[in-house]
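During the reporting period the student researcher (J.K.) took over the structure-prediction task from the postdoctoral fellow and processed the backlog of single-chain submissions. One of the processed entries is reproduced below for the supervisory committee.
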Amino acid sequence: MKALRIVLWAAVAIVASALGWMTYQMTASKDQIAAGPFGVPFELVSQTGQPISEKAFTGKPTALFFGFTHCPEVCPTTLFELNGWLEKVDPDGTKLQAYFISVDPERDTPEVLGQYVSNVSKRITGISGRPDKVMEMIKGFRVYAKKIPLDEKKPDGDYTMDHTASVFLLDSEGKFTGTIAYGENPDTAVKKLENLLKT
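J.K. obtained the following structure tokens:
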């Protein structure tokens, strides 16, 4: 009986330690997001073929959206809505900036991305690059992206991408301030961008 009690107390201690560690990690992660620029350093390519890094996300408040050009609904809808919100909040285009980062760099070359984005907005800049570098950046920015085959029997055939559909909002120092969800009430989205200008 005494041995069983010792084993139970040891198990309780292990569980308590694990929970404590998880709590610490979650808190540290939130503090890290709040303390410095969001994401990780990166070197990718803009839609014009010019090098672009995380430094582009500083100097002005920034809206980031991760998507892909073969996206049937979410991406074109979000880009169209984001462009409208930007024009309403910042008519001159001098106070806010926005970027569309491809989660499908295998198909979305900078040129393809540029044609796609420019058909919707002159205020949003596309970003792509080498697939391995793009995926490193996506992971570092805590964005979910996964290739989904259209036919499970042909895993190497045509595919779509499942991905985070929120717009990320960063202040002028590149710090994370919040998101605009897909399908967000337009008035709420505009208010969030107005608040972003005050950061």
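The committee noted the following: The chain has two domains: 1-35, 43-197.
J.K. will present the remaining backlog at the next meeting.
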